[in-house]
Design a protein that fits this description.
Layout: H1 6-10, H2 18-32, H3 41-57, H4 60-78, E1 95-96, E2 103-110, H5 122-128, E3 138-145, E4 154-160, H6 162-167, E5 169-175, E6 178-184, E7 193-196, E8 212-218, E9 225-227, E10 230-238, H7 239-244, E11 246-252, E12 255-261, E13 270-273, E14 290-297, H8 304-322
Parallel strand pairs: 4-8, 10-14
Antiparallel strand pairs: 1-2, 2-3, 5-6, 7-8, 9-10, 11-12, 13-14
Length: 323
């Protein structure tokens, strides 16, 4: 069934006054009236829509119900769900429980004079039922077969840290009055979605429930930057180790790691540690690399004797450059 945006049809805002609605209707009705556009089927259909929209928005009770339905419809659309899966049955007016097999019968006032001889749309009849017609209109019955509809998919954001994204984790989610424990696999990143089948909105007319999607957000880490499955970090190394060579230890996501520093290592040099990055989401046995950038730490609190040694070293380097 097609949703009718009556405000758009009349070209008015949702907070339009009764006077604004009346003026818009009169202007459009004059333009699209069948007498002005003889044998124009498109104008006739447009005239029908204009009259139907005015019939709803000019009636406070119908407008109130239509606005309530519109809010529910917009929320459904914002969720990104398939419009065909919307549960219309909860809004059908004048509904009477039908026989087994999912069929219901709706008693609907149907007046042709009120809409210029064109009648109401199925959307109007389904939404307003027996409250839809004008005084003196006749009544007819329509049969609607309820097709089983899959429930709405639901999204829920969960926030984890980089360590949890590295090793995988679990979260307990409270939704629709239920508590669910969800497993979040290693390798997820911001924007990853974890699917929990059948934990979304309930289906209608015997249809299956929708799915629950956990949308993952990984918090920024104070020491590691992630690019794909690779990690980047800075490792502080003292001046003496950079000059003489040696090893330094630092904490990685998988535990303590050791980095071999060759003699004469310059500040900013980057070392690659294969397989020490993030696990791949689809192939957890595969891991990215870790890139460790050397950040030289200068000594502090030097004695006069130590400073003199540096002066002598600096003087020797000046002489060698002069040669």
């Amino acid at each position: 069934m097609e949703y009718k945006d009556y405000y758009k049809i009349l070209g008015v805002s949702r907070d339009a006054s009764d006077d604004d609605i009346r003026k818009a209707y009169r202007r459009l009705a004059r333009k699209h009236h069948p007498d002005v556009n003889p044998n124009d089927k498109e104008a006739a259909n447009r005239f029908k829509e204009i009259n139907e929209a005015y019939h709803v928005l000019s009636d406070p009770e119908k407008r109130r119900k239509y606005d309530q339905f519109g809010s529910s419809w917009e929320q459904w659309q914002r969720s990104g769900a398939n419009a065909g899966g919307f549960d219309w049955s909860q809004w059908f007016g004048g509904a009477q429980a039908g026989p087994a097999g999912g069929q219901r019968v709706y008693t609907t006032d149907f007046g042709t004079e009120d809409l210029g001889g064109f009648g109401f749309s199925d959307f109007f009849e389904a939404l307003f039922g027996s409250m839809g017609g004008a005084p003196g209109t006749r009544t007819r019955q329509r049969s609607w077969t309820q097709v089983p509809r899959r429930g709405q998919d639901v999204e829920h954001e969960v926030e984890i840290n980089l360590e949890e994204a590295y090793r995988g984790t679990t979260r307990v989610i409270a939704i629709n009055g239920k508590r669910l424990e969800a497993s979040i696999p290693p390798g997820v990143r911001t924007g990853s979605r974890v699917r929990l089948r059948g934990q979304g909105g309930p289906g209608s007319a015997g249809g299956p429930s929708g799915d629950l999607y956990l949308r993952v957000k990984v918090r920024e880490h104070p020491r590691f930057e992630r690019k794909g499955d690779d990690l980047y970090t800075e490792v502080p190394v003292d001046l003496y180790t950079c000059i003489l060579g040696g090893t330094v230890s630092f904490r990685g996501l998988s535990g303590d790691l050791r980095l071999s520093i060759p003699p004469g290592t310059q500040n900013g040099r980057t070392f690659r540690l294969r397989g020490q990055g993030m696990p791949n989401l689809h192939h957890p046995e595969q891991r990215g690399d870790l890139y460790a950038k050397v950040r030289v730490v200068l000594p502090t609190g030097l004695t006069e004797e130590e400073l003199e040694l540096f002066r002598r070293l600096a003087g020797r380097q000046t002489i060698e450059k002069a040669r």
